[in-house]
Amino acid sequence: MTKIGIVGVGGRGFYGFAWPLSQKKEAKLVAVCDTNLERAKVVSRLIKEKTGISPAEYSDYREMLQEKIDLLVVTTPDFTHAEIAIEAMRAGQDVFVDKPLATKTTDCLKIYRTMKETGRRLYLGFNLRYDIVCRRIKEIIESGALGRIVNVVNADFYQGGKTYMARWNRFYEYSGGLFCHKGCHDLDIINWYFNLARPLRVVALAGVNVLHPGEIPFAPGKKRVGPYCRACEVRFHCPDAGRVESPLFSEEVAKVDSYYPDTCIYLSDKDTHDNGFLLVEYEGGKRAFHWECFFTPVSTRRFTIVGTRGHLDADLAKNEIVVYPRWSHDRITYSLVRGEGGHGGADANMLDTLLLAVKEPGAINFTSVREGIMSVVIAEAAELSRRQGRIVEISELIDWNDLAE
Predict the structure, then answer these.
(1) Which of 19, 21, 208, 217 lies most in the core, judged by the most C-beta atoms within 10 Å?
(2) Under CATH, domain 2-127 is a member of which superfamily?
(3) Predicted TM-score of the model (pTM)
(4) Residue 279 and residue 288 in contact, taking contact as beta carbons nearer than 8 Å
């Protein structure tokens, strides 16, 4: 049985990892850690009510590293990933980091070097690789049906993305920007479809064009707006009002660190974007386009992939893939059925694969640190491009020779 400790038990840490892992027979959740100890206590209580097992509670991950665990799961805010992963590996722990690996290429390289020096294993969580549509697309590419892949166009339309402007994700300092925090999923998949071709240069445009004070969708009159939805006097009239019902973010928990994940998405300070484009050129003449939009009423991911022998369109919300062979009028349609669990069953597939990889090291090719670095490099280049208004060469951020196999 794999003994697991989790650092960071906010929404993703609890619902994506602590809760489902506590239900698995092949795993034992022995400890949870959060800088807000009250939140860790809530998590421990909820798990005890369901399983009868009460994980130890910590507010300092360094103290938790003294526990006898087989795997440390890191689901803290992105800017903390490097420090925690490095400390854990130096303490003799194997580590799982939920995407992204870090927010800066330099921190990714520090993680990589520490992994090599300590000999510890580090697993990287990209649940989109376990999405049934994305996996089928990969199978179609590998079959040769599309020939050599030249172009990938990807759009991430996410209505729920507006909540990034209510949470810690809205600060570049904490998330590395939304090309990193959210876009790393798509960038990783694009890299995967291109068979890890090296990116050469990036150009990006992005901004906050809707989720700002000038776009509040109602007339507040004399009533006070914000600062949090739960305290806002017009919350019942606002179509974007957030409802935070989870005990992880109750008033009692919030008293500890004053963190409210229902901060007004229009009035909140922010230095990330609510929509943006990025274009990447890879070696071999491959090119990819990625689009993010977080105020659209549509929630889906779409892919268009064009190769020398065919064209593919996919829609993750419809669970559908259509392939158009280049020299034919045929249309090949795949209609897929999702499993249960978070992110359309992708989270459950990822956790099952992770536990098998920990149990049988080397038996499964889990997403590697090298692959994780690739998505962060592109995201960082995109943030530099959009903030500085220029094309960014990947060579400005990394020398690929530093990543020995």
Answers:
(1) 21
(2) NAD(P)-binding Rossmann-like Domain (3.40.50.720)
(3) 0.96
(4) yes
